[in-house]
Amino acid sequence: MYIVGEEEAQALQRVIRERALFRYGFGKECDRFEQRYGEHLNVKHVALTVSGTFALSAALTAIGIGPGDEVLVPAHTYMATATSVLTTGAIPVIVDIDESLTISPRAIEGAIGPQTKAVIAVHMWGAACDMDAIMEIAAKHDLLVVEDACQGVGGSYRGKKFGSIGHIGAFSFNYHKNMTCGEGGAVATSNDIYAGRTRCAIDPCHYYWKGRPDGVDLFAGNGGRASELQGAMLNVQLDRIDGIVAAMRDERRRILDIIASNTISGLFCAPMHSPELDCGAHLMFQLPTSEAAERFSQIMPVVIAGKTGRHTYTQWDQILMEKGAAHHLMNPYEHPANAACRRHTAVDQCPSSLDILMRTIMVPMRPEHQADDIAAIAHNILETAKVVLEGKPADEISLMRAAAIDESKFDMADDR
Ligand SMILES: *Cc1c(COP(=O)(O)O)cnc(C)c1O
To answer: InterPro entries, alphabetically (predicted)?
Structure first.
């Protein structure tokens, strides 16, 4: 998505010319990426797979989630966070987010019931979850923490990379994410048993190539093995990721500095749990009302968080319809083991999240932005805020042209 160029093309060409497209036997790119990404994250094991969705599903399987279990998921995330729970036979229970647009620790604590086994902390839009609070609640209630770092590749929290803080982490390398090979994903953990189970979940035949993981009972997983093309491209992307997130964080910092020196009443930056180290992929503001957010978006192209479609639980059709599997006997919503789980999701169950989402506007940061783009974006935010929040007549402002204000970039943010 961000920067793909000649180096990626050459890496792919090399793999094709060597006809080394399969990771086992003669390939080396997937192994090399797993090793290097593990070092980058400071975790013991990384397993590459075909998507972030598959990675989440494998991670939940690895930690032993299954029928009879509830897994807490935030009201605002890509729907795969919730549907991946269903693939294990368990039930996703939707809980509120707070102004950071990540899962609210207070809501987690309030939602824990006798069947609750795990929580998925999603570093949504590249912003950090309140991980200290989440890990503390999890320890107190004996919950497992899965980090959905699909949008958080490259970000950190208190010196630890996203995806390395909880018991297991999942990443996406889809085209719209911070680091990409078109489609791809990975699971990271420092737990040997979880790592062995992840390998079983990703490839039913993997022991044939690599031997049986110690201490792990085999089970039949689905097929999510990555190709050497993915590994080759990711090895190039991994060299870029630190620069990409540093550029986005720097852009956000510069825009915030300009805005801070111009007080506009009612323009509040969304709270950040890791302002210096998260991905910096978006600059977010909470406006007083949804009408103000709507007006803002009509003047300059910002994204209203609540209008990104499938990122809010009210759009997750299969969950609202309780269709958790193709065959009804496999449907977690009908499984007798789930009788005691809270199986019903109502569209109006998280009004506080919906209110926050409709008031939150997001300005996407782009690593290729130059100083004049950044100045233009800051200018446009300030001028638009004067119209929306201070009643300045709209015909008295003029917006500056910035690379961010172009339809393709806008689609990109909307498309995640
Ligand atoms: C993209 C995404 C996923 C799924 O990743 P895919 O690679 O598209 O399958 C899961 N969770 C979140 C938060 C995402 O943004």
So the answer is: DegT/StrS_aminotransferase, PyrdxlP-dep_Trfase, PyrdxlP-dep_Trfase_major, PyrdxlP-dep_Trfase_small
